[in-house]
Amino acid sequence: MAFNLKEFAIGCGLHDPEGFVAGVDKLYELVIETNKTMNLTRIVEPEEFRIKHVADSLAIAREFPEFASEYLKVADIGCGAGFPSLVLAMAFPNLKVTPIDSTGKKAAFVDHTAQALGLRNVNVVNGRSCELNRRSRFKHQFDVVTARAVAPAPVIYGDADNFPKRKTGRFILYKTPEQAAEDLPALEIMCAKLPIKWHVTETFSLPENAGKRLFLYSGEA
Ligand SMILES: C[S@@+](CC[C@H](N)C(=O)[O-])C[C@H]1O[C@@H](n2cnc3c(N)ncnc32)[C@H](O)[C@@H]1O
């Protein structure tokens, strides 16, 4: 296998990269087993899974090292089979992760898998972000709101603008450079009169040249 997940994990600041790799193997087995009866992912080859689901999810900690060192409350909108939420919860016990999905079966899978992996820092919610956005339990509760492969950024922001903590909370969205270029103008119009500014990280390549990625993130204006 050419891609070394343990080394990649060390580069992302993990304190227990070996335990993490063992957890990823278990996660892989659970996803592949459940994928026989539920449409979770088309990425089933082991190395591709490690690169396109696991390394991609984890890359946020290379760009934002606070994931490895701070007690952050993270909401992951549209978690699907648990990406990035389960990967982040496994990698960083200091995080409190709330994976959210509107599809009951996917939320149930993530909940069951978090328990099977022994993760105590995961609290799964079955619901739609636009509805949860109105509930006090979600209002200004999160340090970081993530979403990967869910919807254009203006939709994610519009549906969950109450989620981040006042002043310090922010969105960090997984994007390709093309998606970010498409999303930014509408975001800037939406936020023109708000104390929010949108930024992009440098573009980086996934391992084995599996695609170009960046993060589109909000901050104080
Ligand atoms: C293409 S999947 C991506 C899953 C995962 N984030 C990943 O990267 O593999 C999109 C998921 O988002 C969920 N979803 C879409 N819109 C949503 C919303 N507004 N609130 C919660 N979940 C949503 C869908 O049910 C689906 O499971």
TrEMBL record:
What's its EC? 2.1.1.-
Q: Which GO terms describe its cellular component?
A: cytosol
Q: Which UniProt keywords apply?
A: Cytoplasm, Methyltransferase, rRNA processing, S-adenosyl-L-methionine, Transferase
- The residues that hold S-adenosyl-L-methionine are 78, 83, 101-103, 148
User: Which subcellular locations apply to this protein?
Assistant: Cytoplasm
The record's section on InterPro entries has: rRNA_ssu_MeTfrase_G (IPR003682), SAM-dependent_MTases_sf (IPR029063)
Q: Which Pfam families match?
A: GidB (PF02527)
- Function text: Specifically methylates the N7 position of a guanine in 16S rRNA.
Stored PANTHER family: S-ADENOSYL-L-METHIONINE-DEPENDENT METHYLTRANSFERASES SUPERFAMILY PROTEIN
What family does the Swiss-Prot or TrEMBL record give for this protein?
Answer: Belongs to the methyltransferase superfamily. RNA methyltransferase RsmG family.
State what protein this is by name: Ribosomal RNA small subunit methyltransferase G
Species source reads Victivallis vadensis
Which taxonomic lineage is given here? Bacteria, Pseudomonadati, Lentisphaerota, Lentisphaeria, Victivallales
User: Gene behind this chain?
Assistant: rsmG
